[in-house]
Amino acid sequence: MFTVSDTKVIDLLKFDVQGLLPAVVQDARTGIVLMLAYMNKESLERTLTEGRTCFYSRSRQELWVKGETSGHFQHVQKILYDCDADSLLVLVEQDGVACHEGFYSCFHNQIQADGSVTSEGKPQLIPRNDLGKVLNGLYEMSKERKLSRPEGSYTTYLFDKGQDKILKKVGEEAAETIIASKNNNRDEIVYETSDLLYHLMVLLAFHDMEPGEIADELVSRRK
């Protein structure tokens, strides 16, 4: 886990009138700029404490942990602030991809000299991550949220609302996955299936069931 010796430096940072700082996220290994998001004091403190990026959504006006629903967590290696103390650079190890469109970096649209736009690369998942590991990570996160119930977490919201809300979301995401398939839209299928699998991990955590129990059942059927 990422640790700091003194988090009082937060009080020296120059948050804007909305209490926010822009945070540029960069791959610590390759130097690729992954995304730009915003942090307030609470999300920065959670990032420092938990070692995974947590941001503030200006549109939803709530905290959100990168990877909480997708499994594509960002493991913080280092946080720097600029000479004006009004912006952050966050160096991370990225699980999966940073962009919700499936690209490794959100900055994949290149503006050409004639004003047209081309896309750099193709949507992809980097090889070092497999579905089993991602689902296990989502399950462990869900189990932790069930116990700690941090404010601003969507997973906390689901556990606070209880079993009926979790089941309703599983049903909704299953229906949306069906619709995506009927539309023959690959991006929609990936997006909705990801939502469905996340909510299934929350459901297993609600029942204190390990994903390994499902794996054992599937293996037994193959035999």
Number of domains in the coordinates?
A: 2
Enumerate the spans where pLDDT stays under 50 for 5 or more consecutive residues.
Answer: 1-6
User: What is the C-alpha radius of gyration, as a whole number of Å?
Assistant: 19 Å
Tell the overall outline: globular
CATH class wording of the largest domain: Alpha Beta
How much of the sequence lies in strands comes to: 15-25%
- What strand order characterises the main sheet? 2-1-6-5
Major sheet: size, sense and barrel closure? 4 strands, mixed
Quickly give the CATH architecture of the largest domain: Roll
Derived from helix and strand composition plus strand pairing, the structural class reads: alpha+beta
What is the CATH third-level topology name of the largest domain? Ubiquitin-like (UB roll)
Q: Helix and strand succession?
A: EEHEEEEEEHHHHH
The CATH superfamily of the largest domain is identified as Phosphoribosyl-AMP cyclohydrolase
Model description:
With 223 residues, this protein is of the alpha+beta class. It folds into two domains: 1-129, Phosphoribosyl-AMP cyclohydrolase (Ubiquitin-like (UB roll)), CATH 3.10.20.810; 130-217, Helix Hairpins, CATH 1.10.287. 40% of the residues lie in helices and 19% in strands. The strands form three sheets. A four-stranded mixed beta sheet has the order 2-1-6-5, with helices on one face. Strands 3-4 form a two-stranded antiparallel sheet. α2 packs across α5 (186-206). The longest helix is centred in the last third of the chain and has 21 residues, at 186-206. It is globular and about 60 Å long.
